[in-house]
Amino acid sequence: MIRFALAATALVLGFSAVMAQSDPIAERKATMKTIGGATGLGAKIAKGEEAFDAAKVQGIFKTYVDSGKKMETLFPDSSKTGDTTAGPKIWEDQANFRAAQVKFESDAAAAATATTDLASFRTAFGTVTKNCAACHETYRIKK
């Protein structure tokens, strides 16, 4: 009886994990919106429209790192088509696409360490967001 209960629990947990990944396009969009929100806040800070706040800045870079790691799993072959602007080059050039994701995450982690004031934030933020622009230029379908 215990084996049956453990097996049933494992099946339910496995099914839940599959269901969470069942719509990678929607998850990608949500993750990109999270990144966009962090970038919007960062832009306001960099422009001086919002005061430099070390905690907020660290939150921006943490969002980038966490979202970058999450994005690694959100481009399965089953998500090549649908309501997406992900370009075919993602699947044609997986090695470079993955390298771009790793660079984004690593630059964001380095930026978090390097940022101590507004001037260093502006430099670090610019470096990280250049990754976004480069990836979108190469791997995104333009509307």
From TrEMBL:
Keywords of this entry: Electron transport, Heme, Iron, Metal-binding, Signal, Transport
Parts of the chain that traverse the membrane: none
Key word Cell membrane present: no
Modification note: Binds 1 heme group per subunit.
InterPro entries documented for this protein: Cyt_c/b562, Cyt_c_II, Cyt_c_prime
One of the GO BP terms on file: electron transport chain
Signal peptide boundaries: 1-20
Residues annotated to bind heme c: C132, C135, H136
Molecular functions per Gene Ontology: electron transfer activity; heme binding; iron ion binding
Pfam families with a match to the protein in the record: Cytochrom_C_2
CC terms in the record's Gene Ontology section: periplasmic space
Name of the protein described by the UniProt record: Cytochrome C556
